[in-house]
Design a protein that fits this description.
The chain has 18 helices and 31 strands. By secondary structure, the chain is an alpha/beta fold. A nine-stranded mixed beta sheet has the order 14-13-15-16-12-17-18-19-20. A four-stranded mixed beta sheet has the order 22-23-25-24. It has a three-stranded antiparallel beta sheet with strand order 10-9-11, with no helix packed on it. A hairpin with a 5-residue loop joins strand 28 and strand 29.
Length: 685
Amino acid sequence: MLRPHHYAVQVIKMQSFRNLLQQKKILLFSRSVFGSRCLSSNVAQRSKLSYYSSSFGPRDRGSEEGSAGWSETSSASASATPWASYKPFTEQLESRGEEEPVEWQEKRASGRGSGSGGDLDEGEDEHEVTTFFDPLEGKMMTIPVVEERDAAVRRQAEKSTCIENSEQKKISGRLQRLGECQSKGFQKNEVSLGTTSIMKRTAGKVKVSWVCENCGGTFGQWWGTCPTCQTVASVKQFIEAEVSRARGAEVSEAAVRSKSWLSPKSGTMVPLSLADVNMGRNQSEWRIPLAGHFGMEVSRVLGGGIVPGSLLLIGGDPGVGKSTLLLQISAILAQGFNFKGPARVVYVSGEESIEQIGNRADRMGITTKDLFLYSSTDVEDILDKVQNPPPQVLIVDSIQTVYLRGVTGSAGNIMQVKECTSAFLRFAKQTNIPVLLIGHVTKTGDIAGPRILEHIVDAVLYMEGERYSSYRLLRSVKNRFGSTDELGVFEMSESGLAAVSNPSEIFLSDNFPDSDVLAGLAIAVVVDGSRTFLIEIQALCVSDPSSVSRYANGIKASRADMIIAVLMKQAGLKLQGNAIFLNVVSGFNLTETAGDLAIAAAICSSFLEFPIPNDIAFIGEVGLGGELRAVPRMDKRVIAVAKLGFKRCIIPKAAERTLTSLNLEITILGCKNLKEVINTVFQPA
């Protein structure tokens, strides 16, 4: 009796054993043990193979429905022959040492008498038989060899016929689908499903790699943190067929080469010397200028204007104003607000319809006739539509919504973004038409897609702005044709973006304009690119020995803790039992060390409850010893402070000598450390 948990294992073993017995035919008893036929010249004495039913086991041998058995008897000694049983696991016949039961002999005799299993006559056909043990049925099964062979041949023929029919159906189906695809204009690797076409996965090896969304690094396995840029959860799986590595570049290149109006120029390109390239070219008139206050602000960030044949990428958070910025740039070019006159500009959107773009242009007061709108997401279709006549500037909104038909994957994935950008790059270089692209950003603020996207383009601009603020900052992260230190300041209004002429005004407080003094407030002078900003820093010290806490908004917490520790150690201020709050006006993030002195002055003013006069500005870096250190571009900072009407400026003592030759209408006060600053500023009148 098998246990319940052993039954399944035993059944599996029995099935395997039965298959082995059937395949190798090791139990052909008629040949291996007694011979296939035991015939004698004397018909009465020749052996006969009689069939009877016996139980395979000692408990139910007399059962008529037991396992099929065999016994070979002769007519002379039929009752004296002992019977045997076959052991399948030892592959041997085991003699029981007993005579055949009388009831089985009588049953066999009656069967012969009725003609059910009598002797083999001379005229009867003698058949070869096969006897084997079936473990699942628990019986000895005996079947004719001829029937088994016929059945095996018949099964093999049916199997071959089914395989041939299935192969013919597959081939005919493939030919039919290929004919339909060619008749409908699809490529040979595409399959038509209704009104859309999808790529059919090419048979062959598939390459699986892991790509970092932040830095573009490729790895052979998944990493929770990118080993290159240390970004968490940025490594994503990328599956690429073996043929698609070269195919993506071939498709993007074919999308540009297929245009007949591009091929003549691309085929005549030869290496030129530097003198031949610059011969007869006026560098001041080479760029496409942008007129007006708005255009001048954008041109400052670009390095002087738009370079012909360049590929620009503008990124930013959703709703910050990327589409508005490019729509205003296209309006300036189309209206001809420059010395070159009106230009044909094509604005292609994959996110909005032309009616929606027209509504936004009407709200912004744009009514030019040379601005053409088009809505499409197919790169090849876009390049076809802009050829007659070719525009002066092409704008695509956005690169994550367009796709190439020959590249695997949907729009926005790594392969599509890379190859679509490469196609626009080839278009720009061969036609000398600048292309402006809008790029989406991830939740971390980086442009969505592979990092190689920023390496392909010529310039990368980021548009920044606080959610509840109307001011926008446009800064250059990469620029092959200008400086990356420039910064543009705009204000968002109902009619679009407007340039801010005096950026320092947005960072200065408007509270108490008639007051000459205000406690806990100091003015810092910072430089971003070629622009100088005056920002307001606020500090609040509250005596609360029970819970000492520190909060900094717009200032790095580590930097604020360092300045507070220096004030306690080097200046002698007892700030241990005070909760200190720091804030930068208008949401500006202070990253430059030139604002250290203003932070320290604001904390001292709030702690001492001594207001700082509103005509003093602070410039300098604070060291751990309490000393003041000079910062770059001191002259530019002091000149900006003097132009805004400040009367005094606190600077490090080491930088005082370099500013004496400026002859400015401002008093420059040089200090060596924080103690001298406190003694100079916080003196009673």
